[in-house]
Amino acid sequence: ADAELIEAVLDQVAAGRIEQSITGRGLVDEAERARRVEAPYLQLVLERLWEVERGRGSKTLHAGTLEDLGGAEQIVEEHLERALAGLDDDERDLAARLFNHLVTPSGSKIAHAVDDLTRYARVEPERLEPVLGTLEAARILRRVPGRSGGSPRYEIFHDVLAPAVLAWRARHESERALAAEREASSRRHRRLAVVATLALIALAGTLALTAWALAQRAHARDLARSAEARELVASAFSQLGVDPESSLRLALRAAELEPSGRTEDALRRSLLESRLRLNTKVAAPVQKLATGAGGVIAAGSGDAITLFDGSLARTGGRKLPGRLLELRGDGAVAVSGRTIWILNPLTGRIERRVRIPVGKLPVRDVESGKLVASIAAPKTVRYAALGPERTLLAISDGSRRTIIVNTLTQEGRHVLEQPSSVTSLRFGPAARTLAVGGSDGSVRLWRVSTGKHRATLQFGHVGHVTDIAFSPRATLVATASTDGTARVWRVGSGDPVSVLPGHENYVNDVEFSSNGSFVVTAGKDGTARVWRAENGEAIATLRGHGDPVSAAAFLPGDRRVVSAGAEGAVRIWDSVRQPPLRLVRAFKSPVTQVRFDGGGFEAVTKDGRLHVLSAEGAEVAQRTAREEPVERSPDGATLKIEGKIVVVRRSDGHVVALRGHRDIVTAAHFSPDGAYVVTASRDHDAIVWNARTGTIVHKLLGHFAIISDARFSPDGHWIVTAGPGKPGIWDASNGDLIYLLQGHEDILLSAAFDSTSRRIVTGGRDGTVRTYRCTVCGHLDELIPLARARLAAAAPR
Predict the structure, then answer these.
(1) Which of 632, 661, 669, 666 is nearest to 649 (CA)?
(2) Residues near 746 by beta carbon (within 8 Å), at least 6 away in sequence
(3) What is the C-alpha separation between 63 and 190, in angstroms, rounded?
(4) Which among 646, 715, 647, 741 has a CA at the least distance from the CA of 686?
């Protein structure tokens, strides 16, 4: 060893030099330090130096090696660390507990027997002995003889290890405490994490359960709404034939609850059947109605007349001097005791007053002007009819006798006798004819000028006649009866023209339209009905009064009908089942083809000219018409008409023949998606076909003559047909007829939809181009506001 190393080692291992900075350990006195060296400590240091030098291949101990190793104190500490590093965690914990009893806090070593150490360390001998053996082999502990020959004891190998042992034990316990704290913290964090996870799971579960519950509630509500909508739809359909306005309200509620094809269909059907447009109430049951120029309406209720304008706004009224018997546009008749009052119903002014004498009523000859007879005056007046200009009055007390009275002279003119009791009276236009209805169901026609019997309308009604009406030209007479029917007769011959069945109870009233083509009836069954006079075709049934309808009449224009009933309601209806087409333009030549062109129209006339028209019908341009292109479907299929057959040739070469028409096919067109074909024929039928299979899907039945054209709307929902003077609009999904439209006076040749599928244009042999906007052809979002507006307008005022 070099001299420098000897000095350094002796200095570092001098007695009192070792200090491990353990609480309670102090430095030894400097004087004491100079007197001795810690031999065990010197041995440990020199062994470590020699071990390192040998490892380096040197046989000489150098001071640099001591410095590299950190000095004597570091060598001792590392020796202890190396020895204890070979133990596992449990063995190091056990060693720390042993050191607690083998070294005092002041650094003194203590020897203990194995049994004592076992109790101190609280372990079994078999666990303790391996640790003692390891520490002994590493010269950390050593075995010493026991006292008085007892069991051997263990103590630390060198006193100089005591400070290092105390330092290691303190560090180990701190590390274990820190590890324990970390483990405890980790456990807390794990517990918190578990709790948080469980909480999150619980929260997620709760949220999921809440979401599920909300979804179930929403689903339940959806199901409830759907069920309620289905119930409303069913009720709406059941009410169509009873009260269309109620049906419309139900269908509207269903559509608002659940927009669907089912509710859309119910709403459209209800809109089609709903004809009520205006509605008001008067104080008492209405018995009679009359209409005048400008749409003035007079409603008679017992002993009063109330006046309305065409919008059912009340414009006036008058208290009558007696009980109302008759109310027509040109006059009203009221009776009080033996006085008959004749009034102008539109002004309320009294025009005449006729006194029925007690006893005899004088009768004056019309030609000579002389009094020729006197008859027993009726004690009461139950029926009355007022002639034009209010100069003639027919009255009856319900017996077999009718008296025609001159209101100017207040004398009798004719006395008319018949086999049955009088139940109704009516003058014809110009007062040439008086019709008298009887309890036997017959109607007798009398010449007013002579009082002679003219004809008897019989073998028709089986109940008594409740009302009579003449057509404006007096060529037809209509009668109403308690047998539930009305009938139309020809005045000249007395022959029956048509029977108007359908009412389920008495028919109370009957009136002609101003053009004589239609008849309206009012029934005790709560309905008013519109009929075609010549053939008895039912045009419209006006339902909704609920109570008996006592009177009905056409308003000017004959499109609208006013009715009144026992519940005191006055209602205005749209009675036209066949809406009119608006005239766009008239040509001198038949119009063979029509279509929409932007905001205007294109029309091809028979002379081969194509006319471009504005929306108002003005001609914008004219040129030679081109031949129509071959009809093609979106997938390239084509159509060809071959007599009664239509041939579909698909792009893949497959050919389908559409067979089913009984006469020449006049037109054939694809649906927008190419899945269907609609054909028109001279056999009066239009047919919808499956374009792939050639099977018939629907037959469009409603025309009764040649159909010249049939086309789908661009959206595929509708079909328009060019029938005999009337275009038809049909539901393509089921073949139901929506409307037959009127306006053309000759055979219709062409019809088409615009791009919105809401308007049609038609052309006919009469040379006219006409158009119509179909309000009920809209989708649900268009039908709902229409229904709301319809119901709002028809609400009672």
Answers:
(1) 632
(2) 725, 764, 765, 766
(3) 54
(4) 646
Q: Which of 675, 667, 671 is nearest to 691 (CA)?
A: 675
Per-residue pLDDT averaged across 629-633, rounded? 88
Rounded distance between C-alpha atoms, residue 592 and residue 600, angstroms? 17
Q: Show the 3-state SS of 108-156.
A: CECCEEHHHHHHHHCCCHHHHHHHHHHHHHCCCEEEECCHHHCCCEEEE
One-letter identity of residue 9: V
SS3 state of residue 239: helix
CA distance 49 to 56: 11
Structure tokens at 69: 């190793």
Residues in CB range of 20: below 8 A, 6 or more apart: 73, 77, 107, 163, 164, 166, 167
Residue 203 CB contacts under 8 Å (≥ 6 apart), including other chains: none
Q: How many CB atoms lie within 10 A of CB 126?
A: 8
Residue 352 in this model has a pLDDT that exceeds 80: yes
Pairwise CA distance, residues 253 & 508, whole Å: 35
Decide if pLDDT at 762 tops 90. Answer: yes
610/612 Cα distance (integer angstroms): 7
CB-based contacts of 655: which residues, under 8 Å, 6+ apart?
647, 648, 649
Burial of 448 (0-12, 13-18, 19+ CB in 10 A): buried
For residue 68, how many other CB atoms are within 10 A of its CB? 13
| pTM of the predicted protein model | 0.71
Determine which helix (DSSP H) or strand (DSSP E) holds 101, and give its type and residue range.
Answer: helix 89-102
Q: Angle at CA 324, nearest 5°, toward 341 and 412?
A: 45
